[in-house]
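Contributing new records

If you add data, match the layout below exactly. Sequence lines come first and carry their own label; structure lines follow with theirs. Keep one chain per record. Anything else will be rejected by the validation script.
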Amino acid sequence: MVKNYTKEFLFSKGLDDYFTGINDAFRFTARFFKEVVKRPIHLREVINQSFEVGLKSLALISLTGFIVGIVFTKQSRPSLEEFGATSWLPSLIGIAIIKALGPLVTALICAGKVGSSIGAELGSMKVTEQIDAMEVSAINPFKYLVVTRVLATTITIPVLALYCSFVALYGSYLNVHAEETSSLISFYQNAFKTINFLDIITSVVKTVVYGFTIGIVGCYKGFNATQGTRGVGNAANQAVVLAMFLIFIEEVIIVQMTNWIRYF
């Protein structure tokens, strides 16, 4: 009887903690939308954070995008050669990279690099009571630390995704050019031939949502870090895992909504 009571108590406590965490996350997100329209707007800090986000991820995104373009082209060519349709290779690569791989690869890289960095930075400030010191100094730490970083990721990650897509297409072009002579201009023209306005808008919306998710999750985990230095590591790790999980969920939802719009 005592063991059953203990198990029920622990299960109930775990369930309460789970729903409490969801409630805190929604309140944290709602506070962001409330604070973002208030003055002052720390524009200089937003620019600095945007520079940090872009600079920390640029090299890895360049390398990853380039490799993705080459590898995907190499993997796709044999299948198209069986049907004598290698001329469709640029269009296939364009559809795959612009509609899916470019935004998703960029988001996952930034979730690992930027999300963990934000979670660790704010977590360190939280456990060392620097955030409390800002409140005592009449500075709104949520406005200065959270809003600026979320805006930076929301603005910068779409730009990085666009850059990643073009680098991946260039890597694909080099592979195509090595097999058959073709110009860079004609390759890009063929790659964008089957891309319509809805595809571009969908990719932009994806990256904006991904950027917001990475920023808000990293800030939430860091802003609520506990347990000293161990909490800093947990905040960084949880920020990466949760951001990646939400990115995949958002990918499925946005693709499904786009298909519904396309049918109508």
